[in-house]
Design brief:
- The chain is α/β, with parallel strands linked by helices and 203 residues long.
- It has one domain: Glycoside hydrolase/deacetylase (TIM Barrel).
- The protein contains eight helices and eight strands.
- The relative contact order is 0.23.
- The mean pLDDT is 95.
């Protein structure tokens, strides 16, 4: 994904997915994709604790299998868990039944009603089937913290430029992102607090 904010056409493609929360409330929803991993998730949790806020972690099932203590630590600290497939697979490349099975395999570990497709894409048939069981949560702001072409300050600037009331903001607790997160995550949270945003998680 190379856009910080999804176009109206992408939102139209998955109309019942959650792209943004209530625009009348000065609140944001921090989300983290691709973990849990020991190189990034503990740091992320500590930063969230420092600021006293909660977030939603869209986890890859195989990572949760490898690091069950991190899955439990995220839960213990009061954060929400979301499903990000078992193997971080793209729905467009898989038969629908196999994609859905991969999601269900992850959910044997994650036990959640929230789902986010890797890369933000899936076939319409997958979207319909998964939408019957899960709340499909997309995003309003992609920080692009995973990109090797941008700096930590670029990540912060994306947050500052695109965040609005009800924004669902996507970071990544991953190896690609961790070096940027070390400065960009606390700076972004501090700025959001200074703007008066409340931090929420999904029901």
């Amino acid at each position: 994904m190379f856009i910080e904010q999804p176009s109206i056409y992408l939102r139209w493609l998955y109309p019942r997915a959650t792209w943004r929360m209530d625009s009348r409330e000065k609140s944001v929803y921090l989300t983290f994709d691709d973990g849990p991993i020991p190189e990034a998730t503990p740091f992320t949790l500590d930063v969230l604790d420092r600021f006293g806020i909660k977030a939603t972690f869209f986890m890859v099932g195989d990572n949760a299998r490898k690091y069950p203590h991190l899955l439990e630590e995220v839960r213990r600290r009061g954060h929400r868990i979301g499903n990000h497939t078992y193997n971080h697979i793209g729905g467009l490349r898989w038969l629908s039944r196999n994609y859905v099975r991969n999601v269900e395999r992850a959910n044997e570990l994650l036990q959640t009603n929230l789902f986010r497709p890797p890369h933000g894409w899936m076939k319409w048939s997958e979207y319909i089937r998964l939408g019957k069981r899960y709340r499909v949560v997309m995003w309003d702001v992609v920080t692009r913290d995973y990109s090797k072409w941008i700096t930590p300050q670029d990540v912060v600037n994306n947050v500052k430029r695109y965040t609005r009331n009800g924004s669902i903001i996507t970071f990544h607790d991953s190896m690609k992102s961790i070096e940027k997160l070390k400065s960009a995550l606390p700076e972004s949270i501090q700025w959001l607090k200074e703007q008066g945003y409340e931090f929420k998680v999904f029901d």
